[in-house]
Automatic annotation (TrEMBL):
It comes from Salinigranum rubrum. Gene3D superfamilies: P-loop containing nucleotide triphosphate hydrolases. It comes from the Archaea. GO terms for biological process: cell division. Keywords: Cell cycle, Cell division. This is Cell division inhibitor.
Amino acid sequence: MTYATAAFVGATGGAGTTRTTLEAAVVLAADGADVIVLDAAYATQGLGDYLSGRLDPDLTTLVTDRTDGPLDVGLVELDVDAPGEVACCPVDAPFERLARAKRVEAAQAFERRIEEAVAAADHVLVDVPPLAANQAVAATTACERVCLVSPGGDRGADATNRLRERVADVGATVDTVAVVEGSDERNAADILVPSTERPLPGALSDERYGRAVASLVSRLLDRDVTGVGGSGGLFSGVTERVRR
């Protein structure tokens, strides 16, 4: 069974969750899948840092003021030379709308956006912050699979243990733990993702990094993409365009 949806949940801020989510999406696209990435990390709005062009309407608009509009008006596509596509719905919002987007009714709208994305793509990945807000809980519980993304060392291990408990508290299950750019002396990680100096998509130009990301995707979604990562040139390059 191949899983369609996965929440990449940061065990702590700065764990590398956003990039890990995007690298996983690119590997899936290289394997022929169409992928939609949704941004639940409202506070940091980090997904938008990897995109260019007009980010309006953003995801918070689509779960508050424009809940009846289609998801695709907010998708920003990474234009990749691959069989599949990666389209992202980032957050780019003022504080007032961020506050409204964290309400219960907006979290319910987020769940509906995940359902809508599933109908339009092969896989839906969600960039999720540590579970402390309604939209993060909604994203985690609505997805079939949950990957905790953690830094290495004591800080990461302590954060992972706390987050495991929170995930259980909301009725979800941790399926994979990925430790990024660190050691795993205490974390009991399923996948170790090394650092890379390559820009996105590092998974397709850095062999060691690529093998780790591909292994993570294969384990998390039960889709064998291990022949994709680190292939050294599957992509001639990555540019960005806005799909409207």
